[in-house]
Task: inverse folding
């Protein structure tokens, strides 16, 4: 998953491309590159590492930067070949007349490469993309037309791609193509933009065309032409883009992650607004398209997701099973696929994804769709591929999330899952839970203020973060509905600080992980008053007996038990069932401040990318 960008118009192409790429860094940041065109000549500049390295190079290329008004650019998350300058995009053919940037994976690149080699092509990089550059150039040799060359080439390519190509002989256009990788064309006045995602172009235009799979397009200064898979000219809908440029600003925060953690109280208000009006009224969920009769026939729920979204799904399991009395399986998308999963028309399949572009989840959703299951998509991106696969789309509207570590999108996903479980229970008319649901609704309504009590008082968490930032390992434990909090807390810590952190259900500690415990292994326990409170407390005793340092995150601790812990973080009063939404804020902040003390690149941790569009 990489980011691609293209520009044609009167502005300095280099400035638009670099600005756009800076908003696509969440998609990868191993290397970057641009191709700038001027009167048929194309100059390519690439740099290994962060975008800043490319910016430094371009500072020395004032001449072409001031003249070029057409260009394409790329930011890479390496799949084929090391993250070197050589493997950075754009790539070209041997005569350097065609230049290409690519997001995706060309699955048959080996066989295409052999064929192209036998025709005299020589390769300089280890990438799959270079194969496409040669292939399109070969087709250009036959057709002398960039559009036709692209149309012919994509028919020979297996896999996923979003392409932007330019050719020296046709210096007034950018040709694009898409299959299973996002691509949007921003429409301006006398200028047009191409990007993998909206943030890259939102400050220039609010109107755009989304390319669908198998479409190819020709973008000039004043026109956009789109062709379908049969090469027939078609008209795509012009859409209004959903974001404001302000949404991608740090707004004075040191990192996007901290800003996004602090936005969570508003995210909760946002998700609940108009759906949860009061604790005594039924949830309004018009987006859920199954009739009451069909809801009553649901025999099982399958939740499929990856990473943080998977952890939200695990919380969903607890609340849906408890309130709607439907058995729920939660599975990593990458495990759901490549086996004969049991799902039918009475299975409700819920795909959860911040980006809506995660390849594993898209494949899993398509698989379930073929079996006739009703597909619910919970996503932060109503404009995403997954959203378009949904039978019922529950957009979570957390606002654009820039930091690679997901925070506010997790909160929004949790809220959607609470709403969905209330809705299912209410539609099934399960009266015995109505008072539990009523209380829970009231708790969610009060949740934003409680989140703010945590985010606005970070001092204790900061102090604890500093104290533990030198440890190399961490264990997170919890039970019941907070077990996913332990998993998510550990994930947050490891992905931004590179500390080896593992989440366990507390009861499992004694079945193996306890062997790891000594004074060098801090244990963080999430314990909320409720059915498992005493059990987790006992697990803490076990850890303490092995001299592990103990941090407790809790809404209540008796005076007599305080001495058990080295450090305590007390959260506002909350029921066990609603508590994952508060506990996670503490764990996100702890991870954030530890990484910050360690001087890590919080928003762009190594080896990661926000949108994982490869399986
Ligand atoms: C979250 O902090 C991670 N960076 C990652 O686990 C992420 O949640 C995962 O890749 C799934 O992404 P999605 O929600 O966009 O599908």
Result:
């Amino acid at each position: 998953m990489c980011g691609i960008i293209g520009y044609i118009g009167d502005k300095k192409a280099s400035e638009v491309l670099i600005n756009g790429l800076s908003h696509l860094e969440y998609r990868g940041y191993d290397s970057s590159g641009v191709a700038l065109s001027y009167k048929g000549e194309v100059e390519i500049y690439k740099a290994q590492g962060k975008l800043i390295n490319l910016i430094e190079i371009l500072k020395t290329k004032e001449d072409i930067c001031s003249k070029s008004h057409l260009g394409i650019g790329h930011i890479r998350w390496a799949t084929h070949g090391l993250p070197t300058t050589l493997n950075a995009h754009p790539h070209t053919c041997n005569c350097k007349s065609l230049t290409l940037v690519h997001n995706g994976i060309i699955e048959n690149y080996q066989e295409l490469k052999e064929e192209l080699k036998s025709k005299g092509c020589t390769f300089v990089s280890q990438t799959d993309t270079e194969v496409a550059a040669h292939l399109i150039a070969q087709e250009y040799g036959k057709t002398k037309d960039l559009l036709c060359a692209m149309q012919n080439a994509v028919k020979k390519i297996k896999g996923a791609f979003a392409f932007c190509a330019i050719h020296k002989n046709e210096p007034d256009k950018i040709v694009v193509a898409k299959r299973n990788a996002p691509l949007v064309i921003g429409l301006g006045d006398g200028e047009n933009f191409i990007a993998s995602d909206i943030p890259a172009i939102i400050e220039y235009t609010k109107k755009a065309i989304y390319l669908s799979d198998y479409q190819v397009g020709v973008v000039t200064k004043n026109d956009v032409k789109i062709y379908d898979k049969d090469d027939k000219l078609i008209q795509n809908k012009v859409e209004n883009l959903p974001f404001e440029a302000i949404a991608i600003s740090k707004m004075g925060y040191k990192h996007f992650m901290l800003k996004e953690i602090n936005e969570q109280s508003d995210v909760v208000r946002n998700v609940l607004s108009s759906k949860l009006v009061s604790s005594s009224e039924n949830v309004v969920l018009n987006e859920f398209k199954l009739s009451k009769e069909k809801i009553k026939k649901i025999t099982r729920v399958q939740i499929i997701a990856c990473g943080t979204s998977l952890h939200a799904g695990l919380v969903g399991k607890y609340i849906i099973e408890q309130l709607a009395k439907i058995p729920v399986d939660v599975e990593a998308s990458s495990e759901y696929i490549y086996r004969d999963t049991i799902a039918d028309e009475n299975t409700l399949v819920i795909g959860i994804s911040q980006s809506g572009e995660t390849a594993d989840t898209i494949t899993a959703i398509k698989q379930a769709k073929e079996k006739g299951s009703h597909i619910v998509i919970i996503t932060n991106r109503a404009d995403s591929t997954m959203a378009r696969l949904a039978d019922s789309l529950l957009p979570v509207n957390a606002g654009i999330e820039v930091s690679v570590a997901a925070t506010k999108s997790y909160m929004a996903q949790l809220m959607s899952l609470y709403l969905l479980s209330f809705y299912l229970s209410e539609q099934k008319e399960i009266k015995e839970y109505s008072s539990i649901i009523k209380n829970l609704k009231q708790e969610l309504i009060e949740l934003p203020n409680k989140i703010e009590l945590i985010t606005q008082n970070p001092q204790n968490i900061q102090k604890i973060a500093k104290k533990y930032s030198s440890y190399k390992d961490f264990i997170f434990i919890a039970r019941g509905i907070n077990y996913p909090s332990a998993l998510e807390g550990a994930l947050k810590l490891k992905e931004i600080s590179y500390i080896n952190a593992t989440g366990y259900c507390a009861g499992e500690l004694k079945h193996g992980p306890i062997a790891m415990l000594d004074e060098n292994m801090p244990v963080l326990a999430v314990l909320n008053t409720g059915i498992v409170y005493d059990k987790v407390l006992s697990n803490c005793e076990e850890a303490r007996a092995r001299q592990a340092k103990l941090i407790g995150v809790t809404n209540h601790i008796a005076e007599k038990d305080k001495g058990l812990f080295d450090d305590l973080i007390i959260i506002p009063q909350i029921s066990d069932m609603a508590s994952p939404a508060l506990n996670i804020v503490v764990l996100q902040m702890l991870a954030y401040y530890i990484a910050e003390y360690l001087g890590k690149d919080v928003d762009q941790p190594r080896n990661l990318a926000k949108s994982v569009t490869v399986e």
